[in-house]
Each structure stands twice: as C-alpha cells, then as structure tokens.
Amino acid sequence: MKKLKQVLLLTLVVIIILSLTIIKSANTELKTIKSERELYNFYNNSDEYSPSLIKKILLLPFSIFFNDNNIIYSYGERKYTNEVIIEDSTVAPEESSATKDYSTTNIQVDNVDEADIIKTDGDYIYSISGKEVIITNVKDSENITIESRISKKGIPNDLLLYKDKLIVISSNDNVSYYMDDHTIVYIYDIKNKKKPTLLKSYELYEPYYTTRCIDGKLYVFSSGYLHEENNKIVREYIEDYAVKNIPLNDIKYLKDHKSNMQTLIAEVDLNKLNDINITSFLTDMSNAYISENNVYLVKEIYYEDDVSIKDLFGLKGVFGLFDKIENSYYQPKSEIYKFKIDSKKGIKYSSKTTTEGTTINQYSLDEKNNHLRIALDGEEGTRVEIRDKNLKLIGKTPSVAKGENMKASRFMGDKAYLVTYQNTDPLFVLDLSNEKNPKVVGELKIPGYSEYLHPYDENHLIGIGIDTEEIINKDSQGKVIFPRKSNFNISYN
C-alpha cells in the first residue's frame, strides 16, 4: 500500500511537471518558422485586416468575385554590380585632424547615433548629392576642396560615421514596382579621404526604414511584403556580392498572428566587420524607437467595430445587422513590440502589447529607467501612457483636445510636451514624475501648430511648424468651413 502511494505521488508530480511545461510552451508568444511550406502559408494566408468571423460568413456568397489569387506581381530581374567610381582619386597621405568643436547629428537618445544626409568630423563634410556621396575638405574655410566622390549602385539615402568608417545606406535606382525596393549598405574605410576603400557591403530585399549605431554595432531596419518566386518565399540577401539565405530558424512570428509582411533587422559589428546577423520578424511596422538597450517597433492597426450575434435580435433583425455592417468603422490602435539589445546574443524579442490610438513619429516614444512613455492620438484625444519593462500599463494622463489631431510630441526628463491642432496650436505640458498618476499641468495656445519640438535647455523648447491664418467660411446651411492659409513658423517657448 505504501509503495502504491509512492507510485501515485510520483505519477502526480510527473503529470504536474509535464502540464506546466506544456502550458509554458503554449504561452510562448514568439514562434520560429520550421519549414518552407509554413513560410509560404504566411504569404498566402495573412490575417492582416481580415474581417470578423460573422462578416466572413455573411459575405461568403460574394467572395468568389474577390479572389486575391488572381493578382500576379512581377518583380523584375535582379542585377548586382561591384562597380565603384571615385573621382579625384589622387593618392596622398592623410593629415591628422586636430580636435575641434563641431556640430553633430541631431539625435533623440544619448549614445544612439542616427543616420543623416550630412555628417562631419570637424575637418571633413560627408554629404549626399543626387546619386553621389561627396567628401569635402573644410579644414581651411578659405580653401574648401572636394576630396572625392563616391558613386555606386543605388541612390544614397543616409550616412553614418563611426571612427574611420563611412556607412552609406542606399535604395535601388531602377525600381519598377514598390516591392523591388531594396536596402543596400556600403561600409568604407576613409582613412584616406581621397581614396575611400570599400570594406563590406550587403543588400536586403526589403525597403529601407531606419538605421542606428550603438557602441560600434550597426543596426539597419527594413520592412515590406514577403516575395514569392516559383512557389517559394524569397529568403535571399547579398553579402559581399555572395547570395545567401536567411535561415528558417531566424524567421520569427507571434503566436496566433499571420502576416505576409516582414521586418528585417540586420546587425554588424563595425569594429570586426564579421558576417552580418539578420533576423526576420513576420510583422509590419509603422514607427520605431531605439534606446541603448531596447528596440520598440510600433505597428498601426485598425480594429473593426465588430458585429456580434446579439445584433441579429434587435428591432430591425437581419436588416439591422446589415446596417451595422454598412456603418461599421475601423478604430485605430497600436501594437507595440519590444526587443532587447544584447551585445552578445543580438536583438531578442521581449514582449508586446496593444493599446488604443496611434503614434506620429519616433518622438512619440521615449524610455526612462526601462519604462516606456508613449504619446497616443485616439478617438478621445491625445494622451501619454507609461508602461513597465514588460509593457504593462503603469499609468496614463487624461486625454486632451478631443476632436483635434496630435501634430508633435517630445519628452524631456519628467515632462512631456504635446501639440494638437484644429484652429489654434495648444501646447500641453504634462508632468510624468508620478508614473502612476501623470498629470496635465499647463497649456498654451498660439496660432498655427508645431510639427517638431526640440529641447533647447531644461527651461526652453523650440517649436517648428506652420503659422496659419484662420479664414472662417460658412456653407449655405450655415455650417462653418475652415480653409486655412499657411506659412512656415518657428516659435520659441
């Protein structure tokens, strides 16, 4: 009897352990693509913007007239070249640069460098002009000279400087379809400004989105639709003119979510220039914020005002149900994905959340003490939410300016500044020092609106935007119409 009890107890323990393991596995949000067929199913069976189940049933008889499989996309032939044209390439020993005080790129986060169309090290200016990158010697302000011109496949979009390396991010220059747009990265040694040397290059088969450089690591983000060729999804990329494939185990997706779009994150150590590390996440992104330790990708979505079974039993019956379908609308929301930047393991998925409202640009997000602060424009107005390291809601401000649109936002320490607009420019000041109970503490109304806010110091804020002259007109029924006359405006508050 005693042995029987021991066996039963042991069996119970095993069952509990197995159950916990299964539950933990089932709750794992991030999944890995396991086969070519599974990846192809994502391409064919995306649930992006799909209607609700009831609508699918009601609209089923009409679905034969709308068959997406009849659409054929052509991607064109891929051509690769390693041609580099460098003008004025007389070789000369490089002079040492004296330490100078000079302007740098306007960046959002300390120690997180951002790409720009112009970079400088104080002695030289690196700039994009058409299809060329020009290196200009400005040591002697009375004798400015062009040291070299770099021309290569693609149209340059952005530049980054890191020590004695120049990074050029380009897009295709022969795009016939949007899906042909690729991201091309060139890394040059610029010790000799008269003759830059190409050290490394790679090409991603998605449109370019943004770039960051953190502690010598280059992160390039691109996003677009999956490509299909010969009943297979294209996983190719090009590194140093060799065609490679993204391994299936580096293609990730979220449980219960199918998307025919992907976001590629390519990472390379600029100090070593070893092989690039590419991870594909099967989701779209409409905004991105990158801190020293985390990446936040925001996907703007529209959830349908859903139709429920109870609508069948209203006063109008079935006719009321069809009225609901006809008059339903999509409410904007944001899905936020957080990724941890690990110096040894690369970028790893951390957590996600969904919230009402949408962001407008990277300045709608900010991070302090590993807590996310995010400005959201929604149906009830504009607000700021504060979320913990797992994206759980800590607190939020009351919504302000219902019926107006958020035009700009900026976070400075424990303060947030929001600009909304309908007729005038209300600049709202929010106190975020109490994360559980953030408050609106001030408001300033001026003509027009600011589209960009820049901190000058801890007590001053610069707003750059549109100065509007309000002209009030009325239609034949007396309804007010607001055509506006606009001029460029800079305000200093």
Give an overview of the whole structure.
The protein has 493 residues and is mostly beta strands. It has 2 domains: 31-90 and 104-284, no CATH class; 285-493, no CATH class. The protein is built from 4 helices and 37 strands. The strands form 9 sheets. The protein has a 7-stranded mixed β-sheet with strand order 1-18-20-19-13-12-3, with no helix packed on it. The N and C termini lie far apart (83 Å). The model is unreliable at 21-27, 57-96 and 482-486 (pLDDT under 50).
Low-confidence stretches: 21-27, 57-96, 482-486
Mean pLDDT: 80
Name the overall outline: globular
- Number of helices, where a helix is a run of at least 4 consecutive DSSP H or I residues: 4
Oligomeric assembly: single chain
Largest sheet: 7 strands, mixed
Strand content: over 45%
The computed structural class is mainly beta
The first-to-last residue Cα distance is 83 Å
Approximate helicity band: 10-25%
Radius of gyration: 27 Å
Total number of distinct structural domains: 2
Strand order of the largest sheet: 1-18-20-19-13-12-3
Would you report the number of β strands?
37
